[in-house]
Amino acid sequence: MTRRGLILASLLAAAVLLSIVWPHLPMRGDADPLSKIPSGGHWLKSHDVALSAPEIRWLGGAKGIKRLFSVGGRIWILAVTDGSGNRQAVHDPTYCFIGEGWKILSQSRIPLAGGSAVLVSMSRRDESSSAIFWFFDGGAPFASLPEYWTKSTLRRITLGLSGPEPLLFILRPVGSPPENWTAAAAAAVPLILPEPRK
Amino acid sequence: MSAPWWFFGCTLALAAVLNASLPTAWLHDPSNRFGGLAMVMWLAACLALSKNNPAARLPTWIFSLGLLVLGQLGSLQLLKHSAMAILVASLCPGRAPFFLMALAALAWTPAWGWIFGQAVGSPLDAARPVLVIACLGAAFFLRPPLNATTASQRLEIPPT
To answer: Nearest 10 degrees: CA dihedral of B97, B99, B103, B109?
Structure first.
C-alpha cells in the first residue's frame, strides 16, 4: 500500500473508532436535571401525569415529565424533555401539535424571564388553543432551535465541558388560552424554572 | 495517480450506516412526506450526471468524512446528512453540477428542509421533488462536455 493509501486507511479507521466509542464515553454534568424542576411551593401546586405509551416510545433514551399545576387560578400542563440520552427526541414542538391534529395558525416570539419563548397559536375543528415553548440550560430561556442544536452538539463533542444540556419546556393552558400570554407566562414560568445548574 | 475509489466506497458505507435513521425522520416529520421520494430522485439524478465520467474529489471526500464524524460525535443529524449529500454530489463532474446537486439535497435532509421552511415562511413539503428536478435540469444544462480521452474510452476507440 502507498503512503497516501496508508494515511487514508488510518483516517477511516479513526473515523469508525471514534463513531463507535465517543457516544458511550461518560459526560460531565447533572445526570438528572428533571428532578431539579420545582414540583411544589407556596404559590405552586402540582402533580405529575403519566406519559402515554407513544410518548415513552418517542422519547427513546431521553427523559421527560408531564406535570399539571395551578398558578393564579389557571391550570397549566407542562412537558419537559431532557434529550441527554437521545437528542433526536428534542425537535420543533409544532411537529407534535400537527401530529395531534392541530393546524398551526401563527408563531411569534414573546419575552420570558429575561429571555424569550415561542408562542404558537393553533386550531382544530371548532376549538382553538395556544402554547409556548422554550429551551433552558440555567441561563436565560431561549427560543431558537439552531441555538439548541449548537449547545447540545458542543456539549457532546466536548463531553460536557461546554455546559449543561438545555431542556425543552412546553407550557399549555388547560381550557381557554390566556388573553395576555406575556403576563400569564411572566407569572407562571419563574415558579417552574429549575435553579441554575452546574 | 489513480483515485482511491475504495476510500469513497468506505466513506459512503459509513455515511449510510450513520444515517440509517433517515426514514424514521421522514415518517415522523409532517412536512417531510416527500423526503424519501426526493432522495430516490436525487440519488438517481447524481448517478445519471456522473455516469461514465464520475468526478474524483479526494479533498471533498476527506471533508465529508470529517463532517460525518463531527455529526456523530455531536449527535447532530444535520451534519451527517450534509456529509452524505456532499459526498454523493461530489461525483457529479463540473463545479456547477456538484454545487447544484448538493443544494438539491435540501429536498431530503429534514433539518435543512426545516431551516429553509423557517427562512421562507412555508415548509418545502410537496415542492421537494420539484426542487430536485429543477436542480437536475440546471446541472444537466451546465455539465461540462466529456473530454476527448473519456469519450474515446467510452466508445472503446483505440488511441491512435
So the answer is: 100
Indicate whether A1 belongs to any domain.
no
All residues of chain A having their beta carbon less than 8 Å from the beta carbon of residue B7 are 8, 12
Residue A17 domain-assigned (yes or no): no
Note the ipTM here: 0.83
> Cell numbers at residue A70, please?
395551578
Q: What are B48's three cell numbers?
A: 445519471
Q: Note which residues in 125-154 of chain B have CB less than 8 A from chain A.
A: none
Domain count, chain A: 1
Q: Does A16 touch chain B (CB under 8 A)?
A: yes
CA B11, B15, B20: angle at the middle one, nearest 5?
A: 155
Q: Measured on CA atoms in the order A51, A53, A55, A59, is the torsion positive or negative?
A: positive
Q: Does residue A93 sit within a domain?
A: yes
Give the pLDDT confidence of A59-114 residue by residue, as tens digits. 888 999 998 888 877 888 999 999 998 888 898 888 888 888 888 888 889 988 88
Chain B within 8 Å of A19 (Cβ-Cβ)?
A: yes
Cβ-Cβ pairs closer than 8 A, A with B, add up to 64
